[in-house]
Amino acid sequence: MIFESRLKPVRECTQCLYSDRHPFGLQFDRLGVCSGCTTHEEKTTLDWSNRFLMLSKLVKKRKRINKFYDCIVPVRGTPEYFFVMDVVKHKLGLNPLAVSYNSQFNSLVGIRNLARIKEVFDVDMLSYNSNPVVYKKLVRESLVRLGHVRWPYLAGETSFAVRVAIEKDIPLIIWPYHQPTEQVGMHSYLDKAEMSRRSWIEHDLMRTSPYQFVSRSETLITLADVEDISYPENRLLSQYGITGIYLANYMPWDTRTYSEEMIADRGALAAESPRTFDTYDRVDDLTYMGVHDLLKYANLGYSRVTDNLCREIRFKRINRDSAKIIENYYQEQYPTDYLNSFFVWLGISEEGFKWFLRFSNFGKKEITSINLGTKENTFVRGFFSNQPPLAEEKKFILYGKGLELTEPI
Predict the structure, then answer these.
(1) Distance, CA of 126 to CA of 160 (rounded, Å)
(2) pLDDT value for 67
(3) Of 16, 37, 222, 338, which sits most exposed with the smallest number of CB within 10 A?
């Protein structure tokens, strides 16, 4: 790799790989263990059978008498969402309306997984596609302003589920987990944190409301351009009684274990991605482990493989020393071919993107060769793959059922 992040942590957790660079904020105890690791320990101490019973009683009260749909379940094309649907339909006995917001960077694996979720679980799915020209403008603006290419997707994915809940009067939304709690222990699982408009802006959108992008003179983005990625006002949420709950408050959430169960039992698909060993994570989005991950590394000093490894350390499936070797190995990668689809889509050159990285928090680095040892290779090979690597895909799939984007819009 020819870049490395200039950002260095002041303090690192003595147990996992997270540091004080984490954007959600970490607290450390007197032994140097971070709040994320401390909260994770609740997964080994809480009575999860009782907590699932609490969830069953909660959703039973919200079950819709004389209504067709009981809840809304936002889904992505990854194995984890098979598990979410399995819990909702078969363990909670609910009839969900699945909703999916199109990232416009879809992989073939992701498209196939969404189709399989509909078929395997016999559910209706409502998908939304933003205007691709407007979406491209938003991606450009978020790249320049925030150093982020997924901001429009994060805004749209969450707000779409809530807007559908209001439009169709289905007040219960079920999400898999609350990311700030899973990563940095922002809440105890006992707190039963729920989705909120405030959390959407502060955590999902990095304190940037869609309306802050509106400027006819600077960005040419209008109010109409951000209307479909904007979150409903609190008065509407209250009026319709919208509640968003997280399954991870009632189950000891483990993305890897749940994904592997769904691959074995429900035919979920997995594939190798650049810059991480995790073949289940974000395999539906062809920009996530390329452009997005490089920008994350530049802006925060760590990347998605760090998130994956921290989870594995906390579940005691790998030790910190081996995890550090794997982290360095994947952060060295610069997957040129994998990035090209995004460069073509946005109309930029690779050299322009490299300039942007240097302009951010990346510095030049001497090319080195980090090799994985036997222990590390064994760990990496423990992740299943039943589809071709994502790096072999040369274009995004704009919509499902075979309509592919072969030329820049």
Answers:
(1) 10
(2) 81
(3) 222
Domain boundaries along the sequence of the chain: 46-249, 270-392
Residue-averaged pLDDT of the chain: 91
pLDDT tens-digit profile of 2-24? 566 767 778 999 999 999 999 99
216: left (phi over 0), alpha (psi -120 to 50) or beta: alpha
* Helical packing angle, 132-146 and 336-346, nearest 10°: 120
Name 95's Cβ contacts closer than 8 Å, sequence gap at least 6: 68, 69, 70, 89
The number of residues making up the chain comes to: 409
With 60 as the cut, is the pLDDT of residue 402 above it? no
3-state class (DSSP) for residue 220: coil
Residues 187, 189, 192: CA angle, nearest 5 degrees: 85
Find, among 288, 161, 295, 289, the residue nearest to 228 by Cα: 161
pLDDT in tens, 205-224: 888 999 999 986 777 899 99
SS3 per-residue string spanning 76-120? CCCHHHHHHHHHHHHHCCCCEEEEEECCCCECHHHHHHHHHHHHH
In contact, 187 and 181? CB cutoff 8 Å:
yes
Give the span between the Cα atoms of 205 and 153, in whole angstroms: 10
pLDDT number for residue 308: 98
* Ranges of H-type helices in 189-277: 197-199, 223-226, 234-240, 255-266
- What tokens does 198 get? 């405030």
Do 81 and 117 contact (CB within 8 A), yes or no? Answer: yes
- Provide the CATH number for the domain formed by 46-249 in this structure: 3.40.50
Higher pLDDT, 362 or 325: 325
| DSSP assignment of 281-320 | TTTTBTTIIIIIHHHHHHHHS--HHHHHHHHHHHTTSS-H
**383, 387, 392, 396 alpha-carbon torsion, rounded to 10°:** -110
Query: Strand pairing partners for 124?
Result: 97
Place of tokens 């409903």: 232
According to the model, what pLDDT value does residue 404 have? Answer: 46
